[in-house]
Design goal:
With about 110 residues, this protein is mainly α. The chain is built from 4 helices and no strands. Helix 1 (about 1-30) packs antiparallel against helix 2, helix 1 packs parallel to helix 4 (about 75-105) and helix 2 (about 35-55) packs antiparallel against helix 4 (about 75-105). It is elongated and about 55 Å long.
């Protein structure tokens, strides 16, 4: 259980950091290119959420293969763990996006 929890927390913070860092650096790029940083940060945070989720769990196809092969084989424990990893990564990406909205005054 300890290994599961540490990987879940790691997935959460990886997704959170990808959204937060991508939006902040996108805002810096907007300032350099004389565009409104607030709107750019909001756009980047919304667009990057799915990629943060995919990066946090280690790719887009492998977790789905684990879920499929274990469900078809009747072994539910690894499949449930993969689904929970996806949930933790989604929560991290969503919280990063909500933080950016809050910082930009839209949330």
């Amino acid at each position: 259980m300890n290994i599961f929890l540490s990987k879940a927390v790691l997935d959460f913070f990886i997704a959170f950091g990808i959204v937060l860092g991508g939006a902040m650096l996108g805002g810096m790029g907007a300032v350099v290119s004389l565009q409104p940083p607030t709107q750019t940060m909001l756009d980047v945070a919304d667009r990057i959420k799915i990629w943060a989720l995919a990066a946090a769990v280690g790719g887009t196809i492998d977790p789905m293969r684990v879920i499929e092969s274990n469900m078809l084989g009747g072994n539910l424990s690894p499949a449930i763990k993969q689904v929970l990893y996806l949930v933790f990564a989604f929560l991290g990406a969503h919280m990063g996006s909500e933080l950016i909205k809050w910082v930009c005054g839209k949330g």
